Amino acid sequence: MGHPVNHEDLKKGGMVKLKDKDMFSVWVRAVCDNMGADKLRKVAELAGKYGRGLVLFTSRQFPIIPHVHLDDLGKVQAELRQVELMLDHCGARVRNADVCYDANLCPYAVMDPISLGEKLDQFWRDDQGGFKIKTSIAGCERQCTAPRVLGDIGFVGAERNGQKGYDAYVGGKLGLDPFLGIKMAELISEEAALNLVKNYVGFIRQEGREGERAAALIRRLGEKIVRTALTKDLDAGNETKPFPCDTKQPRKADGDILRVRATNGEATTAEVLKIADIAKKYGLGFVHFPVRGGPEIPGVDISHVQAIRDELRAAGLSLIESGIDNLQSCFGGYCDNGLFDAQELVRKVEKLVEKIGLNNLNIKISASGCPNSCGISHLSDIGFVGVVEPEVDLNKCKGCGVCLKACRTRSLAVENKRAVYDRGKCKNCGMCIKACPFGALFAKRKGITILAGGIGPHFFNDDQQGETRLGEKLIGFVDEAGALAITEKILLLVKRTGKTIAGLMSELGFDKFKEAVL
Q1: Is the CATH code 1.10.10.60 the one for domain 103-230?
Q2: Pairing assessment for the beta strands 472-478 and 54-57 based on DSSP bridges
Q3: pTM for the complete prediction?
Q4: Which pLDDT does position 1 carry in this prediction?
Q5: How high is the mean pLDDT of the chain?
Q6: Which CATH class is domain 7-92+249-314?
């Protein structure tokens, strides 16, 4: 007999278990959130060779190869190493620093996120294990990497009164208990930003509890204590050397950035090969992976855009030029934590958009198969989240306490040798149901939560520059048919008014908006 498979160890190494037996997703690291065309071709080829011919462009800004069998994981890693690709981290590990575009590419950049990202990349290469830490950097207040929410530590390039620097936010996270990062420092230098990160690592090692993230640290200790610890000696010298990004631009680069539509962040092997070929033929030879999943080809001369449209159309692809922004989701249909098929719902929503004839690129819609919100549902005009309400079968419950360890919101307790839970604390993730060895916890009901009015990365809408907002719960449990019916009402209202949902909610107030669409 072979050795038992340790799924947690594989997960930390970037190989995450899926629902089907012995099937995994492989997380491929993208330095600077970019990947050269030849490397991307290899990812696409491996998806066809060892997977089911699909590549996913995720909200963590790197590609994933799903449906790889356990026996093939080592082969995929070996072939990735041949082109100098490695796997990203998952679980309670430090993640690579997410960045937006090079300052020599983006006309909006105030600070150069690649420069800071290179130094953070080198810093994180030393094992800072034990805690889950995400860092995110945006070169301007358009915040294309959503650093205030997608980073335990987030940096936003800003300019005020003739001074440039980074505003530093701490505590951002989505998931079961979303938290909008708190500004801890303003207009600090790149060196000061690195010192803030070092301070955070030292502080959480000293004061943090097992599995604790920045948001929980702030809630437990208070903003003042955390701020004092993190902003100490920011002006001290810093000699962190950069780990060079091979797609960094040595000088100002001309050309447009073309965004390719990839609904659900999903593309076939053939489609990804075509995107890589176009990037090499017409662009700067690499592809950028944004938060919202539609891969981007930078540095394209405007004279080549029509030829690119034609080549994409022949491959079944298109640019994001009409309709709404790229519809993003996690892979809830085959994720081990998924409570509903988020991808299938998004495909139906896309057909709704076409039926209504909505043409507003500022509208963002996404779906997450569970409350972990990997599909960034809280940062969209309309966000869907899979939920389940647990119930305890007292005749089956042994009071063993396994469910208490699985529950991340401390909603469960054991009283009189039986499990009881606080419905007010429960976030409806279903982890307790999965963990129960006796089948004593079961799904009383399953459904979809609809969030509305979230504001995240701003590629199109300059009116929202500098603003980040978490979506508010419109309805707690609804089935797919109900979710589609409510979505249609919202989209018709958007088409009639020409406004974003966040704008409508601000104008009408949440209660009146809710009344109008429910």
Answers
A1: no
A2: unpaired
A3: 0.95
A4: 41
A5: 93
A6: alpha beta
